[in-house]
């Protein structure tokens, strides 16, 4: 009786019974609950993904429209009024601006208050002298005196779908004397062409809709461009979007295909963007999962039950061994070390978790040590690490009677990159600068980021002082080459000050001060060059 009672009270027996019950219950509820749950969860995941995607693309389109709207407004303010009597000179003026800021793929034109195109660039056949008095953008600017964007339509001169950004040109008395208009093709590279180039899944895509004009502005399907919207009552979610709804939902489109759609606004144009994917494609995982469960449930149940029964005793042995080792580490009887993982089960996971925790603690110590000595942005040694190395190098050079050089480098033209393109772009530029500098020095030398856009280079064991000048000249030349960041190219320069040990100073602080002063001499001399610190008697 006692042995039977002990068997029933045994942890092993209870675990075996629990595993069997769990498998049986799982078999009963899997088909009743899992399918519905997965569909709801998958719908929420897909809806969130669609919403995020629609919002991202809509923000991108909104930014592109704003850039073009601001550009045409700025050009209208800058346009010299005297050129309104010289169409060719005005075309040349437009050409210069169009070359610098080629945002209007179909060109720029100036329209007189009568509606007649006076000048344009690039010159298209039939555009000059053509009347645009009936165009909505012309009427909006003439009547309101404010900038306006026209409805998407096929251009009168370009014969391609596009939009027009227009801004008034006024005289000193505030009277309208002309209208400046920039024309962009809808499928121009860098504008809306990505909507046609990118699909969602195999058959999903984007719709760009203008509610005011009741048009598909652009779509992944090129045949829908500038086509009228379906009537009300065909697509309920579309009707809600036309009424102002922004979000996601399941709907049936005009072709009878059920799909998950997400709607996001484009405020600068009063348009909205739809990201859509058919539900059969979004939920195609569920039928496959059901078939998989149906085929494998009985096999899994048998294997799990047998495995629990046969291996439970064996599984507990590494757990006991791990517990003894952990206790010994806690009492100091043995050093901290990773535990061996006997098998990848729950006991193995517990052991692996302990090893992971131990590894994370060691990694954190290593990271803290690295952070203390390296710049997190460029991975170069930081100011503290450089000063330590400089002091050590000076002490070594004193003992060996050798010369070393310190190059203090400050970037020229870096601030406009940060101001115009943001700190993320500036950070990428600093990484490229660090990479180029490291390629120019020996392994025994050191490149460090001193702070901001300042870098320092330590050249050890140089015989001829001119060698430092050669390295500085290579740095100037390397940093003068254009740097590619995404689709943009940037060109910066560098002003470099050079101080030599022991020629200019015999300690780290003085050497840094001499190099820093020489760097400012290089900047005052015209930037993008280098200067040696003057001899001590001239300081």
| Fraction of helical residues | 40-55%
Count the strands? 19
Q: What's the CATH superfamily of one domain, by name?
A: Reverse transcriptase/Diguanylate cyclase domain
Tally the helices: 14
CATH architecture grouping of one domain:
2-Layer Sandwich
Strand content: 15-25%
Give start-end ranges of low-pLDDT stretches.
none
Distance between the termini: 102 Å
Overall mean pLDDT: 85
CATH topology descriptor of one domain: Alpha-Beta Plaits
Shape: flat
Structural class: alpha+beta
Walk me through what this model shows:
The protein is of the alpha+beta class. Among the domains are: 79-185, 2-Layer Sandwich (Beta-Lactamase), CATH 3.30.450; 383-538, Reverse transcriptase/Diguanylate cyclase domain (Alpha-Beta Plaits). It contains 14 helices and 19 strands. The strands form 4 sheets. Strands 1, 2, 3, 4, 5 and 6 form a 6-stranded antiparallel β-sheet that branches. The protein has a 6-stranded antiparallel β-sheet with strand order 9-8-7-12-11-10. A 5-stranded mixed β-sheet has the order 14-15-13-18-19, sandwiched between helices. The chain is flat and about 110 Å long. The model has no long low-confidence stretch (mean pLDDT 85).
Offer a quick outline of the entry.
This protein has 539 residues and is α+β, with helices and mostly antiparallel strands. The protein is 49% helix and 20% strand.
């Amino acid at each position: 009786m006692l042995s039977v009672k002990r068997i029933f009270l045994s942890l092993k027996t209870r675990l075996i019974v629990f595993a069997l019950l769990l498998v049986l219950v799982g078999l009963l509820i899997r088909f009743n609950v899992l399918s519905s749950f997965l569909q709801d969860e998958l719908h929420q995941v897909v809806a969130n993904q669609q919403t995020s995607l629609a919002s991202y693309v809509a923000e991108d389109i909104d930014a592109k429209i704003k850039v073009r709207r601001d550009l045409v407004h700025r050009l209208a303010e800058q346009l010299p009024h005297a050129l309104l009597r010289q169409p060719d000179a005005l075309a040349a003026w437009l050409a210069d601006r169009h070359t610098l800021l080629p945002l209007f793929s179909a060109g720029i034109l100036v329209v007189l208050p009568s509606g007649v195109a006076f000048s344009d660039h690039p010159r298209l056949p039939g555009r000059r002298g053509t009347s645009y008095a009936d165009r909505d953008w012309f009427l909006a600017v003439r009547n309101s005196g404010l900038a306006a964007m026209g409805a998407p339509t096929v251009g009168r001169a370009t014969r391609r779908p596009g939009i027009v950004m227009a801004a008034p040109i006024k005289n000193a008395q505030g009277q309208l004397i002309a209208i400046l208009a920039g024309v962009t093709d809808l499928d121009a590279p860098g504008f809306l062409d990505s909507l046609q180039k990118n699909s969602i899944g195999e058959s999903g895509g984007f719709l760009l809709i203008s509610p005011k004009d009741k048009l598909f502005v652009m779509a992944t399907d090129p045949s829908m461009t500038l086509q009228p919207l379906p009537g009300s009552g065909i697509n309920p979610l579309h009707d809600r979007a036309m009424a102002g709804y922004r979000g996601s939902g399941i709907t049936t489109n005009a072709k009878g295909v059920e799909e998950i759609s997400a709607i996001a606004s484009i405020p600068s144009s009063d348009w909205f963007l739809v990201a859509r994917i058919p539900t059969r494609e979004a939920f195609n995982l569920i039928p496959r999962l059901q078939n998989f469960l149906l085929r494998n449930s009985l096999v899994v149940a048998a294997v799990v039950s047998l495995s629990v029964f046969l291996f439970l005793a064996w599984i507990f042995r590494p757990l006991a061994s791990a517990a003894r080792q952990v206790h010994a580490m806690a009492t100091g009887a043995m050093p901290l070390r990773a535990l061996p993982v006997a098998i990848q089960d729950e006991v193995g996971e517990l052991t692996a978790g302990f090893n992971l925790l131990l590894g994370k603690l060691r990694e954190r110590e290593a990271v803290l040590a690295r952070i203390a000595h390296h710049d997190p942005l460029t991975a170069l040694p930081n100011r503290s690490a450089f000063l330590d190395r400089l002091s050590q190098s000076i002490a070594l050079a004193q003992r060996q009677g050798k010369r070393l050089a310190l190059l203090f480098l400050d970037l020229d033209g870096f601030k406009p990159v940060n101001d115009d393109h943001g700190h993320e772009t500036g950070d990428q530029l600093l990484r490229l600068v660090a990479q180029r500098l490291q390629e120019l020095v020996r392994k025994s030398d050191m490149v460090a980021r001193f702070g901001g856009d300042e870098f320092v280079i330590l050249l050890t064991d140089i015989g001829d002082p001119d060698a430092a000048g050669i390295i500085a000249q290579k740095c100037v030349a390397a940093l003068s080459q254009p740097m590619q960041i995404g689709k943009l190219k940037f060109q910066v320069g560098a002003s470099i000050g050079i101080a030599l040990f022991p020629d200019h100073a015999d300690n780290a602080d003085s050497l840094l001060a001499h190099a820093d002063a020489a760097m400012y001499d290089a900047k005052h001399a015209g930037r993008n060059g280098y200067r040696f610190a003057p001899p001590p008697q001239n300081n």
